Amino acid sequence: MVRRRPALVSLLLALSLVLAACGGAPAAKTGSPQQGQQAASGGKTIRVGLVTDVGGLNDHSFNYLADQGLQRAKTELGIQGQVVESHNQTDYIPNLTNFAQQGYDLVIAVGFLMTDAVKTVAKQYPDTKFLLIDDQIEGMPNVASAMFRSEQAGYLVGALTGLIEKQHALPNLKGRDQVAVIGGMKIPPVDAYIAGFQAGVKAVSPQTKVNLVYEGKFDDPTGGREVALSQIAQGSDILFHVAGGTGTGVIKAAESQGVYAIGVDADQNYLAPQTVITSALKRVDVATFDVIKSVRDGTFQPGVHWFDLTNDGVGYAKPVAAVPQSIVRQVEQIRQQIIDGQIKVPATVSQ
Amino acid sequence: MRGATGRWRAALIPLLAVLLSLLIGAVVMLASGYNPLPAYAALFVGAFGTPFNIATTLAHSVPLMLTGLGVAVAFRSGLFNIGAEGQFWVGSIATTWVGYAVGGLPPALHVALALLAGAVAGALWGALVPGLLKAYTGAHEVITTMMMTYVAIQLSHFLLEGGPMQAPGYTPVSPDIRPSAFLPLLVPRTQLSAGLFIALGAAVIAWLILERTTLGYRMRAVGFNARAAAYAGIDVAATTVLALGLSGAFAGVAGAVEVLGVNHRLYDSFTAGYGFTAIVVALLAKNDPWATLGAALLFGALSTGASYMQLSAGVPSQLVDVVQGIIIFFIAADAIIAWLLRRSRNRKEVAA
Questions:
Q1: Same domain membership, residue A208 and residue A222
Q2: Which residues of chain A have pLDDT under 70?
Q3: C-alpha to C-alpha distance for A160 and A139, rounded to whole angstroms
Q4: Interfacial A residues in 35-64 facing B (CB < 8 Å)
């Protein structure tokens, strides 16, 4: 063992020297524009960098959806896309800066945690365009921010819920005419969903009781499960969660008790196919794709972009087959009424 | 006293652990269909390729240096402080509060006061509950420091999520600290602040305390063999409390430097576990203050290079995590085993 060690050491040292020697190459390569497929509009290929927040790509939500939009833009628009995940609050500025330094056309920052970092880096790189998801930055000529009218999505799944309760339209309902909303934290992006949900239920089924609980965290499935079980024990049979990772516990609790859940942000039916009857959607993928397209087409607009039902920026996932078609048709009518402006959806919670 | 050759021999095992991990990481990359050579090249360029990258690497290393020193100091006293993360948090919280709530001070004084607040908060977090419990009831510091970490993190959630330290608006962040409390940047447009000098100074202080003071001598004696130290007239209980307090102070300063030099406010859940990586840093450094600086630099370089590796070589971050995990495993397995061996040997000597 001891005798072998020098050989091993020299091998490893040689390897590390080789690696070190290779060091200069990629920087030189990435400095020049890559020869990819040309964009449909002609000219050079658009390069788009996506920086996730600390949630990472597998968050079943924002970061995942933003990446979906980027991947779609890659295949449909022929742009080049690259993703870097942040592991740490202090990664935001270096990650955004790296993309800007390499001459990327658009850098996408996912989540309000990156607001400060985007403001800092965008000021230093005025020739690079930035897109911030889910927070507002105004007055910077190279920064667009995407905001979502989630209350509209909440309203639609709320109306669906109210109709199901009113008509006892699913098996295993408890008949108590009671549902529950489980929020992560009491912050406006969460409350927008909840406000819409409350209003949606009330509009179609005024006697249905909507319980509201904030679990307190977004990353606590165990806590979410506890809260959900207690709500189910009190008679709720449809649970709408707006609680990120905490919500996976809510869905599991509903599944274990044979009642129903509604997902949030992305279509979460795959988490429990018999249980998650629909999901309130926040189409971060649509926002990402649209802004990438605007950069490619040269029509990029700085400032706040609102995404709502009119531009498919929010919505609800196709309900499971157990939900009667008559109810789905009614919800579709309500959707059209919101688009036409006949229904105004509140964005603040009524307690 | 070990000589120069002894020192090199001591450095050989950690060095081998790192190189071996990189080699296994390369195999994992090959097995997943990535070419390890450009990936590692990108890792290196990302960490040291440009002045900006070097500054970012150093900036990432500073909190690891300080928390690593904290863990190392406790280790030398035979205490496994795995709660540096919590001490880092309370240090950040106290510093942030002094940073925005206290006004009208000249910059040097404001920075000093804010740093002191972080150090004291971290020291109390280490000394009060885990230190006193260990000294007077024997409650194991692995449990108590860890539990205090959860308390610290929950405290920050409470303060920031609609609590007394939340800035106006819905985002769970504190107000910005006053510019008079900013640590000056060493390289403009980077996150590298004068906190680097604080980290280097802290290493000098750690070395002086451990090697040149009676307190350090007592700490090392307790760490080497607590019963023998007690027999020799050393107050083991007081030394234990002081050691955990000192350890916490370093971690608290790490949190303070991160707030004053980089973030300038407190974010909800803003660390990626510096206090935990610090354990590996200290183990890799064999609890030597100077080596701690080097080990922290290595991990700072890995985390900085990892992002660039994903950006430029397209190696997904999951694979980066795998590589880092193998490195941590090798280093931790090696050093933890060595530490346990030494500890059980000490026990046997005492029993005999």
A1: yes
A2: 1-43, 351
A3: 39
A4: 49, 54, 56-57
**Structural domain span for residue A91:** 41-148+285-310
Going from N- to C-terminal start, the domains of chain B cover 62-182+192-287
Q: Please check whether residue A150 is in contact with residue A349, taking contact to mean a CB–CB distance below 8 angstroms.
A: no
Q: How far apart are CA B245 and CA B150, in angstroms?
A: 18
- Helix (H, G, I), strand (E, B), or coil: what is residue A281? strand
CA distance B284 to B287: 8
CA distance A241 to A263: 6
Measured between beta carbons, the chain A residues lying within 8 angstroms of B307 are 84-86, 91, 94-95, 98
Cβ of residue B30 closer than 8 Å to a chain A Cβ: no
Q: In which region does residue B33 sit, left (phi positive, over 0), alpha (psi from -120 to 50) or beta (all else)?
A: left
pLDDT at B308 over 80: yes
Neighbouring residues of A74: CB distance < 8 A, sequence distance ≥ 6: A80, A81
A57 plus A187 within the same structural domain: no
Chain segment B149-199, per-residue pLDDT in tens: 999 988 998 898 878 999 987 778 899 999 999 999 999 888 999 999 999
Asked if residue A218 and residue A154 are part of one domain, the reply reads yes
CATH (domain of A114): 3.40.50.2300
Indicate the pairing of strand A143-148 with strand A129-133: parallel
Residue A259 belongs to a domain: yes
Please name the residues between 109 and 148 in chain B that touch chain A, using a CB distance below 8 Å: none
> Of A203, A200, A195, whose CA–CA distance to A155 is shortest?
A200
In a domain, A33, yes or no: no
Q: What is the mean pLDDT of residues B88-114?
A: 96
How high is the pLDDT of residue B6? 62
Is A23 within a domain? no
This prediction has a pTM of 0.79
Tokens describing residue B52: 């900006």
